[in-house]
Design a protein that fits this description.
401 residues; 9-stranded antiparallel beta sheet; globular
């Protein structure tokens, strides 16, 4: 056997192996191309273990990122000392599209869940440290006695820690920060300096508002020699969450405006025009010794619950409501007022001669913290004893005659 004959078996074996490999490959080829389109996309993208994007989290992330970027960009552009630019209608609409009412109801349910005894002190202590709560003023200082967060938020105070100012005819209705105060001009009210809202949109139509040339502001006044004043008190999460009567007066009507639950902290109030008119609120209106008087509790994020102690029928943050509607409840037996109160979305009823509130009496409470707006008629020489941005507590004087 020559050299070529000796190498021939190896050549044959190589040919056989090559043929076998071709058969194996040809057998696999149909299986590869028999994959459906979704499997091919999975192979190409590698996302077989990732879920499809959800619209709500995607909206929250993209919307929050957009608002954050716009805030950062405008903040860098504005000069020191200049007020921040107002939010555009698109930005406000995007903010209002967030499910803040749903989140507030969920937060309310969470607040009502009883905590184990061993967990109460760590949870409440963290809240106290975060928001600077002064528990020495609380009627119950033992943290274990508060069954849930709701009870802790609505804690009562010791009677002696909030004395009433004797030299002032008007006292603070709540613990908080003074956002703005002053006279109401041209039926426009300032929620913070330079940012206003419509008085008519805020209170809604009133009794006695006729067809004459009087402005909405003037129609509230009982005497042309008087003036209309306002005070805005912001309650932070660490503040005492109950609100009290700022003077002796008679409540004639409760008007409930369902609405959004956007944040009302000073930073948001500076950029969202008519914020207080967009949010859910409960307005108590009536009379005091100088004429018209109103106290309005404005809701906010996580403050879906506004409670008025003498009105058990009030239910806030309902799952559904008609945009732009309001619901009235009259405490006086006056047929004319009832007919005026039943406006768009209004529901009126008679219950007597009104609710008389004494100076300093507890009126209601928030589920967390929010804003109280006072609008009242007084003689033109009424003067405030306040400074913008100052801290104030229940019972401290707001002004005098």
């Amino acid at each position: 056997m020559d050299q070529h004959d000796a190498r021939r078996p190896y050549v044959t074996d190589e040919n056989n192996m090559a043929a076998a490999l071709r058969r194996v490959c040809s057998g696999l080829t149909p299986r590869v191309f028999s994959l459906n389109c979704s499997q091919q996309r999975t192979l190409s993208t590698g996302r077989s273990f990732l879920s499809r994007p959800r619209p709500l989290p995607l909206l929250l992330v993209t919307g929050g990122g957009y608002l954050g970027y716009q805030h950062y960009r405008k903040r860098g552009q504005q000069e020191d000392g200049d007020p921040p630019p107002l939010a555009t209608p698109t930005q406000v609409a995007l903010y209002r599209s967030f499910p803040t009412r749903l989140l507030s109801r969920a937060w309310g349910r969470l607040n009502g869940m009883d905590l184990p005894t061993w967990l109460r002190k760590p949870v409440y202590s963290l809240y106290i440290w975060t928001f600077g709560v002064n528990m020495q003023e609380a009627a119950v200082e033992d943290l274990h006695q508060y069954k849930n967060l709701g009870e802790f938020f609505r804690r009562r105070l010791k009677p002696a820690v909030r004395p009433l100012c004797a030299s002032s005819c008007l006292i603070s209705p709540a613990d908080g920060k003074i956002l703005h105060f002053g006279r109401v001009k041209n039926s426009e009210v300032e929620q913070v300096k330079g940012v206003t809202y419509s008085l008519e949109n805020f209170l809604g139509p009133q009794k006695g508002q006729g067809h004459d040339s009087l402005s909405f502001r003037d129609s509230l006044l009982s005497s042309p020699e008087n003036d209309l004043f306002h005070v805005v008190v912001y309650l932070a999460p660490g503040d005492y969450h109950c609100f009290h009567s700022p003077t002796d007066w008679r409540v004639e009507r409760r008007r409930h405006f369902p609405g959004s639950l956007m944040s009302v902290n000073p930073g948001v109030a500076r950029v969202v025009k008519e914020l207080f008119c967009l949010n859910e609120r409960v307005a108590l209106t009536g009379q005091w010794q100088h004429g018209f008087f109103s106290l309005t509790a404005v809701g906010a994020t996580n403050v879906g619950s506004i409670r008025v102690y003498f009105d058990q029928e009030l239910q806030t943050n309902a799952p559904r409501y008609s945009k732009g509607s309001f619901h009235d409840h009259s405490y006086v037996a006056d047929g004319d007022q009832v007919s005026e109160a039943a406006g768009e979305g209004g529901v009126a009823s008679d219950e007597g001669e009104g609710v008389v509130l004494q100076r300093g009496a507890a009126v209601g409470e928030f589920n967390l913290g929010s804003t109280i707006v006072l609008l009242f008629e007084a003689p033109a020489d009424f003067s405030f004893s306040l400074q913008p941005g100052q801290r104030i507590r229940v019972g401290e004087g707001l002004g005098s005659l």
